[in-house]
Every structure is written in C-alpha cells, then in structure tokens.
C-alpha cells in the first residue's frame, strides 16, 4: 500500500520545525545544543504544552524524553491514552540552565524569553488545531489561559478557549517526580492521573 502524502498542515508544521532550528530570537540558543520543537501529528486530538526542554530533551532534540517524560508516559498509559495520538511541545524551545559542576540544572525562563518563543507555540496551536489543549504546569497555564489563572484552584477543569477548543491545566510531571523526595508521591501521582483522566470525558466542541 502506498504511503499517504502528508497533509498541507503537516507540511506547514514540518516547515515551521525546520525554521525553528535556526531561531536566534533570544540568547538561549547560544548555550543550548539544539532547538527542541514539538513532536506529533498535525491531526492530533490532544496538544500537551510543558514549560521548556530539559537536559535530555536538549541532547536528543525531542520533547518529554527525560524522567518527566517517562512519568507522563506512565500516567497516559494508566489512563489509556496512546502517546502516539497526541502532540507534545513546550513554551520554551531551548534548554535554559545553570552549571553545577558538570550538571546542567533547569533554570526558569524570563518574560522576554517567553515572549520571544511565543511565535512558535502560536504557530503550533494554529497548525495542529487540536480541540483539546493540556497545560502542564503554571507557565503553560498562564500562557494559554491568562496571567491571572490559578493552577491551584482550577487544575483538572475544562475551560473553553473559543468555539472549537477547550483547555485543561494540571501540574507538570516534573512536579510529580519531585514529590518522591519529602512528599506524598502516591497521592501526588494519583491526583495527576485523575486530572489526565478528564481527557476521557472532554466536552464536545
């Protein structure tokens, strides 16, 4: 059977990905290994947005392939959602870090860096056109749902973005990982899975 040609939206998304590899809109590119653009099909039903690429993502050039990504895979499997059916990306497409010896530790992006990267995220949202947007963590939630959005009060709830899209915010899987040290990891993970289970009961668009 002949392979189906990529759709126009998929071709446009692939073109945007290639353009992002040359992005110099903020200083983060200088120390990062490479741009980490989103991954997945333009026809995805769910679009997940995280904060920024991490150490392993920076080295491999793919989003959510480090420890947080593995935890997300586990949670999706527990809910019954195939990762191959979703689109994954981050607000920030380069890894911002500080060196501690030989370790590269995540450092939060500032407002200017977020602003510089918005053109790519806005392009992904336009081309993927997923009816359901899942924000992983406070930064992604504020970018999509507004600066006044409270993740603590509103996590796990569907919110209409427009007539064709809804968004839901939950914690970042890295937050769940950190609960293994001095926190109630079982309860934190269960709450994360409960939020993702709302994807099975998404509102009709």
What can you tell me about this protein's structure?
- The chain has a 5-stranded mixed β-sheet with strand order 2-1-5-7-6, with helices on both faces.
- The chain has a single domain (26-200), classed as Uracil-DNA Glycosylase, subunit E (3-Layer(aba) Sandwich).
- The radius of gyration is 17 Å and the shape is globular.
- With 205 residues, it is an alpha/beta fold.
- It is built from 8 helices and 7 strands, in the order αβααβββαβααββαα.
Key traits:
five-stranded mixed beta sheet; Uracil-DNA Glycosylase, subunit E; alpha/beta
Q: H/E element string?
A: HEHHEEEHEHHEEHH
* Main beta sheet: 5 strands, mixed
Q: Please give the CATH class.
A: Alpha Beta
Low-confidence stretches: none
CATH architecture: 3-Layer(aba) Sandwich
CATH superfamily descriptor: Uracil-DNA glycosylase-like domain
Instruction: Give the C-alpha Rg.
Output: 17 Å
Mean pLDDT: 94
Backbone shape = globular
For the terminal residues, how far apart are their CA atoms? 34 Å
